[in-house]
Amino acid sequence: AVCGHGCKYGECTGPNKCKCFPGFTGKTCNQDLNECGLKPRPCEHRCMNTHGSYKCYCLNGYMLMPDGTCASSRTCAMVNCQYGCEEIKGEVQCLCPSGGLQLGPNRRTCIDVDECSAGKAVCSYNRRCINTFGSYYCKCQLGYELKYISGHYDCVDVNECVTNTHRCNLHAECLNTEGSFKCRCKQGYRGSGFNCS
């Protein structure tokens, strides 16, 4: 079986047919499936979609049970947690629905962890980190685009000279570089390449 566009989060099962891994969707399995929008809903109270998965959490005054259901809890109601709570050895602790969130100074509400500035994100050299609430993703660096080449997705250099996205002067030639471009005034002209006279 050959899948011309590849299967990003899945496997090729027939000519251009992808079988997606759980949590992913789309023709090439490149889109995250929003499990929170499925019927029946996967969580009893609240649901937070994450990359390739989801997390359940409860309304204030409820405790998240191991099976994902929410049980009424007087202790949770008293603590007033933003995303429900759990009881460990008789001690009530507020929960955050994702590893990319941490309890704030009041120990009740959750604040975002900026994985990009904290250095916790893992992105390959030609990708940049974009922080999101509760997580992050890796995007191609400026001057690169995502392409499916020899069996996998990669960020490849955009040739601005070919795509005509350069800003070179009419009397300059465009030279493609890795991730960018240069402009050089043609013979008989002088200047920066953006301005030639």
From TrEMBL:
<feature type="domain" description="EGF-like">
    <location>
        <begin position="112"/>
        <end position="150"/>
    </location>
</feature>
<keyword id="KW-0106">Calcium</keyword>
<keyword id="KW-0217">Developmental protein</keyword>
<dbReference type="GO" id="GO:0007155">
    <property type="term" value="P:cell adhesion"/>
</dbReference>
<dbReference type="InterPro" id="IPR052235">
    <property type="entry name" value="Nephronectin_domain"/>
</dbReference>
<dbReference type="InterPro" id="IPR000742">
    <property type="entry name" value="EGF"/>
</dbReference>
<dbReference type="InterPro" id="IPR000152">
    <property type="entry name" value="EGF-type_Asp/Asn_hydroxyl_site"/>
</dbReference>
<protein>
    <submittedName>
        <fullName>EGFL6 protein</fullName>
    </submittedName>
</protein>
<dbReference type="GO" id="GO:0030154">
    <property type="term" value="P:cell differentiation"/>
</dbReference>
<keyword id="KW-0677">Repeat</keyword>
<keyword id="KW-0245">EGF-like domain</keyword>
<keyword id="KW-0732">Signal</keyword>
<dbReference type="Pfam" id="PF07645">
    <property type="entry name" value="EGF_CA"/>
</dbReference>
<feature type="domain" description="EGF-like">
    <location>
        <begin position="32"/>
        <end position="71"/>
    </location>
</feature>
<dbReference type="InterPro" id="IPR018097">
    <property type="entry name" value="EGF_Ca-bd_CS"/>
</dbReference>
<keyword id="KW-1015">Disulfide bond</keyword>
<dbReference type="InterPro" id="IPR001881">
    <property type="entry name" value="EGF-like_Ca-bd_dom"/>
</dbReference>
<keyword id="KW-0221">Differentiation</keyword>
<dbReference type="InterPro" id="IPR049883">
    <property type="entry name" value="NOTCH1_EGF-like"/>
</dbReference>
<feature type="domain" description="EGF-like">
    <location>
        <begin position="157"/>
        <end position="195"/>
    </location>
</feature>
<dbReference type="InterPro" id="IPR009030">
    <property type="entry name" value="Growth_fac_rcpt_cys_sf"/>
</dbReference>
<dbReference type="GO" id="GO:0005509">
    <property type="term" value="F:calcium ion binding"/>
</dbReference>
<comment type="similarity">
    <text>Belongs to the nephronectin family.</text>
</comment>
<keyword id="KW-0130">Cell adhesion</keyword>
<keyword id="KW-0272">Extracellular matrix</keyword>
<keyword id="KW-0964">Secreted</keyword>
